[in-house]
Amino acid sequence: MTTERAYHHGDLRRALLTAALDVIATEGPAALSLRDLARRAGVSHAAPAHHFKDRAGLLTAIAVEGHGLLSAALGGADDLRDLPDLNDLRDLGVRYVRFATAHPAHFQTMFRPELLRPDDPELLAARERTRDRLRTAVQGYSDDPAIGFMAAWSMAHGFATLLLSHNLDGPLDGRDPEEIFRALTGEMFRPTD
Predict the structure, then answer these.
(1) How confident is the model at residue 135 (pLDDT cuts 50, 70, 90)?
(2) What DSSP string describes the chain?
(3) What pLDDT is attached to residue 86?
């Protein structure tokens, strides 16, 4: 009967991804097991392997999906060209932080290369799209675009990570994290002449 349920499950791939995201959000990526996900989805323990082969394949699929969601949250290339002032760069960082708080399981997985298939073509392409969006956005805010890119990404990523891990609860003291992030970027980035 389990085999029949697996065969007629519907969108098993999506069900497994959703269950995995729930586990990661509550327990972290280390708690993830394909056998447990199969049980949660009501399918045979071998069924997840048909879609992901192994745990790394599942986590890679989550990372790919996460990069797609992040790229969409950051906006299209037209939104990022010729940013007229620092407020737009700040808003881009806020979008990054919002993504992290809205999709914490994706965020926890996307930047953990030891959990993923590092040579997966979809992952490599998805990462590059995200980086391109960030690189485009910081042009004009640093004399060295590579350093500006790393500084902006580090700031948004670090802030999001500290926010998700509740390390900023005390320092924020109830203040809006988005407004605090905007203030931080004002301290760090000024348009170059």
Answers:
(1) confident
(2) -HHHHHHT-SSHHHHHHHHHHHHHHHH-GGG--HHHHHHHHTS-TTHHHHHHSSHHHHHHHHHHHHHHHHHHHH--HHHHTT--SHHHHHHHHHHHHHHHHH-HHHHHHHT-GGGS-TT-HHHHHHHHHHHHHHHHHHTTS-SSHHHHHHHHHHHHHHHHHHHHTTTTHHHHTT--HHHHHHHHHHHH-----
(3) 52
Task: State the architecture of 55-188 in CATH terms.
Answer: Orthogonal Bundle (1.10)
- All structural domains of the chain with their residue ranges: 1-52, 55-188
Q: What is the pLDDT of residues 83-117, one digit of tens each?
A: 445 567 788 899 999 999 999 999 999 999 999 99
Task: Tell me how far apart the alpha carbons of residues 171 and 100 are, in angstroms, rounded to a whole number.
Answer: 19
What predicted TM-score, i.e. pTM, was given to this entire model? Answer: 0.85
- Model confidence at 44, pLDDT cuts 50, 70, 90, reads confident
Q: What CATH number labels 1-52? A: 1.10.10
